[in-house]
Design brief:
single chain; 107 residues; mainly beta; Rieske Iron-sulfur Protein; 4-stranded antiparallel sheet; binds FE2/S2 (inorganic) cluster
Length: 107
């Protein structure tokens, strides 16, 4: 059964912004794209770069890795530009009232 963890309140991540949350096994980044929240691992699939530190292009739903420039779709995790070719893991986000809950990547 999928376990969800409360990671923040909606007010903590306005549209166009992002926040990080440290699970035991994985740090994740939650992005607000025009009011819809998406969550991906904070770990580039090219060479483990700190993906969430890169440029967040909310208009195009993209995060650009700060290390070598790979681009990922924050909605799907798909790698859109080299040098990354593998998708970044994504995690389901749900909203309960004004709380943000994320699917736990922990085993
Ligand atoms: S570590 Fe992200 S592009 Fe290389």
């Amino acid at each position: 059964m999928t376990k969800f963890v409360k990671v923040a309140n909606l007010a903590d991540v306005p549209p166009g912004e992002r926040i990080w949350y440290d699970f035991a096994d994985e740090t994740v980044v939650i992005f607000n794209v025009n009011g819809t929240l998406y969550c991906v691992a904070d770990r580039c699939t090219h060479d483990d770069g700190p993906l969430g530190d890169g440029t967040f292009d909310a208009r195009n739903c993209e995060i650009h890795c700060p290390r070598h420039g790979a681009i990922f779709d924050v909605r799907t995790g798909e790698a859109l530009a080299m040098p990354a070719v593998k998708p970044v893991p994504t995690f389901t986000v749900k909203i309960e009232g004004d709380e943000i809950w994320v699917e736990s990547p922990d085993e």
